[in-house]
Amino acid sequence: MEANKIYPDPSKVREELIQRYPSKVAKKRAKSIIVNDPEIIPEVQANVRTVPGIITQRGCSYAGCKGVVLGPTRDIVNIVHGPIGCSFYAWLTRRNQTRTESLMDANYIPYCFSTDMQEENVVFGGEKKLKVAIQEAYDLFHPKSIAIFSTCPVGLIGDDVHAASKEMREKFGDCNVFGFSCEGYRGVSQSAGHHIANNGVFKHMVGRNNTPSEGKFKLNLLGEYNIGGDAFEIERIFDKVGITLVSSFSGNSTVSQIENSHTADLNVILCHRSINYMGDMMETKYGIPWMKVNFVGAESTAKSLRKIAEYFGDEGLKAKVEEVIAEEMPKVKAIIEEILPRTTGKTAMLFVGGSRAHHYQDLFSELGMTTVAAGYEFAHRDDYEGRDVLPKIKVDADSKNIEELKVLPDPELYNPRKTEAELEALKEKGLEINGYSGMMKQMTKKSLVVDDLSHYESEKLIEIYKPDIFCAGIKEKYVVQKMGIPLKQLHSYDYGGPYTGFEGAVNFYKDIDRMVNNPVWKLIKAPWQKAGATNGKSKGLKASYVTQ
Amino acid sequence: MLLRHTSKEVKEREGLTINPAKTCQPIGAMYAALGIHGCLPHSHGSQGCCSYHRSTLTRHYKEPVMAATSSFTEGASVFGGQANLLAAIETIFSVYEPDIIAVHSTCLSETIGDDLQQITRKARDDGKIPEGKHVIFASTPSFIGSHVTGYSNMLTGIAEQFAVSTGVKKNQINIVAGWMEPSDMREIKLLSKKLCVKIVLFPDTSDVLDAPQSGKHVFYPKGGTTVAELQSTGDSIYSLALGPISAEPAAIALEKKCKVSFETLDIPIGLTATDRFIMTMSEVANVNVPDEITEERGRLVDVMADMEQYLYGKKVALFGDPDQLLPLTEFLLDLNMKPTHIVSGTPGQRFEKQMRQLLDERSPETNFRNGLQADMFLLHQWMKNDPVDLLIGNTYGKYMARDEDVPFIRFGFPILDRIGHSYFPNVGYSGSLRLVEKILSAIMDRQDRDALEEKFELVM
């Protein structure tokens, strides 16, 4: 950390955060609050149950499956099987932008579909109503795909969404119907839902269309959900460089792109947590390697583009990448140089997601700001400590319940895009092929890492560190701002963005500059509340009538 | 086109709800509990429920919305959630120190069959509830009714579990607030003050969900009905329930438990609903209506008369919740406008009957439906068949408004993209005046936008 700023002693902070908890809770939380050391990365307890009663940022498996992974694909009719709420709350709230080529193209994102399960469906079963709903959706819209999402009661009453889906799929013949057992109680957070979504998309969508995709450098963009138009900016850059995007998983994507995605030659992963399963499964079945990249931050974007060019090993592509970087960077540099004096030396905290709390540190570092504490909402140990830790992770009862697909090389379509030797050579060059080194390696010594931060801990952290900006989500937004600290939402971007790529970096610099330097934070106290103010002290006029 | 797949042809549906004009019970219970001072709402179910409800309420109010969850996992779903709730109660009292925990159930805990009464009793027996603190509960299964039902169920739970009859009557009137905004509750209090009637308003989310920026996060803001006030409701001379669906059940509970007679009124939205409210207050409290209120009323009628030409015959589509839709429809009719299409996802024969009665008398040709499949998709289809001049409803209406190029007023829950609803009321004469102003601005802005150059008016 910067030498010119005095930071609190992190081990003392840690003690203070858990002091108030009942002893069992304190003992558990202590394992998730870690003082970082990037050299010898300590173990972080992650992906474990939240203690009941703790005010947590976390959501549920359904949110991770329908809300995060499946939500952004525009031409699937997503029917939520359950009472009305689950579908209602996930309706358009994640800002997954999508752009159709024409008004004729399917786009169901602005719609909310539900079986609106009633008491009699809970008592007598809801499968019949579900099949009626699927039929009605088919008759009304004739979509390419219909996906069914199970909510909590569905699992308990034993509705078989997979059988219902299969029956309807076979009945229609021209509409791919498939289901997800993503009941909210599965796993310990959204993370279980990501995994369930990955399994379903892999089983029911990937590989359905073997038409060879066109283009010389073909890749899929995994774990990018086009919030605020992030994928549009990445698409813009890919176009400029001459990279063909076969499919995204799943921002701005379509069914046919995903069905054809196994014809790409590389998978690049942005959000490791939500989509790494897909990378692994496609590698095993089709021989497509995956590589961790990051398009959050201008420097990170440049670096990621260079890595992709290195992977394809084409001199022309490498030259083009350099040309594009040389063209884009000066615009970014001009802005950041103007902003830097106003942001340098300030501090940030990031508690969000399963990847964003890591990647946004790049943008803050470009702004000259230090991340003093960070943590994820629903990540696993590998997202903190790096994938080397994978063999050491104990699979607990909650994770065991999430299916691990057994994937084998496809007898016809398996085609290793690179030989073992080639992959090793690329790794030598620093490419994260089938690997991810996690958040902690990048964070400074003695910074604080907290998994599944509770409300209580967040208030304590703010009191102790008084950061210049706090990054989290909507539930935390106004709590933190009431404390006089601006909060940047890193799920919804406060309805701004994009924040990826070169243009996104500029948007972010400007937003953070505006937020940390906004005069409103100095207007909180009324003039009569300030020290030495003349609150109620007479100026010597006889004005007693005022109080009569 | 945002809703490009919505066809003009209406087909009856039985299984599929598209673009619902309602959401589920627990969020209503959470909102109601926030109107009790020192209360932490608690969601007994999976984490997602609590997260979704907090997020939606936060987006609607741009305010902190604190609530805890039992964080069910698969184990709890199999073995029941008792252990989770007991652990939660212990954790909450030691970490967040509320006076009250208001537990509501979810579809998950209801399907499992968790008995909240039994679990909270056990918590008390096991000494998990500190002296002087309270744990109350309401059963709010998401597969029955709507968010309005959940609000009503939590209010009923509050009334049943707090009200005490000491045998000595108190010179005060209970006002059971139907689902309304903090601004509306503030206005009800103000009107009562002007009438010189002492009331206990519950719940009361003013000074909770419209808290000032002070540089501090006050976990339990200063607003909300206090425990002492709630206990005293059993001694009040009378209860007024504002809202047959969202408020009346709590008034019935008070009558049953403490013999407090009650009367049910509409939420005072619009001129005549406010008239009924003021008249009833004046009668039950035996007070004269002050000139101040008569003049407020006069200002509203004055605007209605002066601007009548812009309102006459304008067709309106509206969607939302029963207790708001009924007085709003009546108000639109008083404004000489034409409510053309009305939907509410909230089921219930009483509302259906009341609305039908109002429409049969004054606007028999209006399309109206509530309950299952009475959704925005249907409303949109109706709008395509019989276009309207104005759309009134929650934020989700903006997609229809844009596609059909119809002026749009945000009204109801949730409003995710504008502010104002928590600060400026829709109830009372002044709230109704604000509504008329909004309606006029929407219609007249449209006239200005669409007028031919030679027909563009300076004075309107």
Structural summary, described in words:
The complex is a heterodimer of chains A (548) and B (460). Chain A has 548 residues and is α/β, with parallel strands linked by helices. Among the domains of chain A are: 61-184, Rossmann fold, CATH 3.40.50.1980; 218-338 and 387-428, Rossmann fold (3-Layer(aba) Sandwich), CATH 3.40.50.1980. Chain A has helices at residues 10-18, 23-30, 61-70, 84-89, 119-124, 127-141, 152-157, 161-172, 190-204, 230-241, 255-259, 272-286, 298-312, 315-343, 356-366, 381-385, 397-400, 420-428, 455-465, 474-482, 501-516, and strands at residues 33-35, 76-81, 113-114, 145-150, 176-180, 218-224, 244-250, 266-269, 290-292, 347-351, 370-375, 448-450, 469-472, 487-489. By secondary structure, chain B is α/β, with parallel strands linked by helices. Chain B is globular and about 80 Å long. At the A-B interface, helix 3, helix 4, strand 3, helix 5 and helix 6 of A face strand 1, helix 1, helix 2, strand 3 and helix 3 of B. Strand 3 of chain A pairs antiparallel with strand 1 of chain B, so a sheet runs across the interface.
Summarize the structure in short.
The complex is a heterodimer of chains A (548) and B (460). With 548 residues, chain A is α/β, with parallel strands linked by helices. Chain A has helices at 10-18, 23-30, 61-70, 84-89, 119-124, 127-141, 152-157, 161-172, 190-204, 230-241, 255-259, 272-286, 298-312, 315-343, 356-366, 381-385, 397-400, 420-428, 455-465, 474-482, 501-516, and strands at residues 33-35, 76-81, 113-114, 145-150, 176-180, 218-224, 244-250, 266-269, 290-292, 347-351, 370-375, 448-450, 469-472, 487-489.
